[in-house]
Amino acid sequence: MARGKTPIEKNIIVVDEQGNEYEATYSRRARGLVKKGRARFMEENKICLACPPNMILEEQQMNNAIDNKPELTAADILEKIDRIASDIDYIRDAIRAIGAAEEIEETASALVSIVQLREKTNQQIIALYAQMYRDLCGEAEG
Questions:
Q1: Cα–Cα distance between 18 and 48 in angstroms, integer?
Q2: What angle, rounded to 10 degrees, do the helices at 104-141 and 89-100 form?
Q3: What angle, 0 to 180 degrees and rounded to 10, lies between the N-to-C axes of helices 74-86 and 104-141?
Q4: Is 59 a residue whose pLDDT tops 70?
Q5: 49 — phi, psi (to 5°)?
Q6: What is the mean pLDDT of residues 66-72?
Q7: Which one of 3, 29, 58, 104 is most buried, by most CB atoms within 10 A?
């Protein structure tokens, strides 16, 4: 009968000198911090960090405005959609590759799959741009 190991628990409370409490840690980790002079034991199950972590533990507020980037206009979105619709170079490249291939059937099959995936991606991008366009036009009217 195999004996199960008891899971190690994070049972050492971690605080800094200002009394801020951090996530609990493992006993071995706490002893290592104390040994290296980064913390001191305050109680049997509590250590105080000599220097608290140099990071902000709270989530940052996201700013909708992106610095140094011009705002996207409805004309920009329509231009991007038009660029996708007029880009057929990848189809021409696929046709050239089929013509140059020794194994035409396998190459053609692979290239058909690539073109289909590219078209599906283009459709999704155009749908995104269309929604952005509707949102922009709706904001302009409002």
A1: 9
A2: 180
A3: 170
A4: no
A5: -70, 135
A6: 64
A7: 29
